[in-house]
């Protein structure tokens, strides 16, 4: 009789979980949490470990999403002039609780998935992957990269073993996490105050740089893996990977590879015939070429971007590009002067 009740509960719980996910997608987090908690309590009563692990992982993902939505809302609020008058101001303390809740639910889910009395397949289940992913992202938001990366490693391992359909998205997510960790290892020179820099010995700086390079290369490998498996029509995925290449090569100081990757982004934008994206890609390429001390190539790309911006009547972009061109001209007067033709004597 108990087994029959358990089977009926499993079918019903799947329907209710889908409903909870629907509420979550609509940003109705309260209704979604209420459904997950109810299913979780019933699963505990029937000792259904599988449903318990899934609900806990879903709750971890829910609180992560709640945090990220709140964070985005807070960032938008900072941009508004009359922020003090806004009724939907974000409570930072409450927002931070969402991250800690996400980690706590994730840990509970993983205890079940990796528990001794749980079937081995639970270690590679959707619940285990979801819990690890939520915890990895949550720790990244807290700036605790050392705790985050092992969870992303688990996500990759599970996704590859199960040949998940969303492996490309997982690769991109993990690649971004490794890159974020690399950036955090050794901040930009401008971000280091004198005291912090003095506290680091030459040996410590060397070790940090080596760790940073290792993490960047791990990120780069995942971006490349995504490029290899991406569908031909997955334009967004390819563009994201190439943007990842640009960021990684910039951090590694490999300027030529960075420029080549940006040229590939430009090619994709041109194929998609998206004027705004083309303008931005041309301008970004021009910036890189200028930094690489290639002022003539930089000028050619700025002018292409300006010509297209004028056709699109994009006033803000036109003004910005004109300023860029004037600045480039001023910084490289000799290089950009028209070559005088030699006259025959």
Coarse structural class: mainly alpha
Largest sheet report: none
Total number of strands = 0
Strand content range: under 5%
Radius of gyration: 26 Å
Low-pLDDT residue intervals, each spanning 5 or more residues: none
- Principal-axes geometry comes out as elongated
Distance between the termini: 110 Å
- Helical residues, percent: over 70%
Number of discrete helical segments: 15
SSE topology:
Layout: H1 2-25, H2 29-45, H3 49-79, H4 92-113, H5 126-141, H6 145-162, H7 167-185, H8 194-199, H9 202-229, H10 235-252, H11 255-272, H12 275-291, H13 295-312, H14 315-331, H15 333-336
Helix pairs in contact: 1-2, 1-3, 2-3, 3-4, 3-5, 4-5, 5-6, 6-7, 7-9, 7-10, 9-10, 10-11, 11-12, 12-13, 13-14
Task: Give an account of the 3D structure.
This protein is mainly α. Helices cover about 80% and strands about 0% of the residues. It has helices spanning about 1-25, 30-45, 50-80, 90-115, 125-140, 145-160, 165-185, 195-200, 200-230, 235-250, 255-270, 275-290, 295-310, 315-330, 335. Helix 4 (about 90-115) runs antiparallel to helix 5 and helix 10 (about 235-250) runs antiparallel to helix 11. It is elongated. The model has no long low-confidence stretch (mean pLDDT about 85).
